Amino acid sequence: MKAILVPFEESDVVDSVLGTAVLAAQRFGSYIEGVYVQPALPAIASADGFGVVTPAFVEKYEQEDRARISQAEQYFNDFMQARGVAGSEPSTPSDQASAVWQNVGPSDDYVGHRGRLFDLVVVGRPVHGATTPTMHTLEAALFETGRPILIAPPKALPTLGETAVIAWNGSTETARTIAFAMPFLKRAAKVVVSTVEDAMVPGPTGADVARHLARNGINATAADCVAGKRSLGEAMLEEAATHGADLIVKGAYTHSRLRQMIFGGATSHILAYSEIPVIMAH
Question: Which pTM was predicted?
Answer without folding.
Answer: 0.88
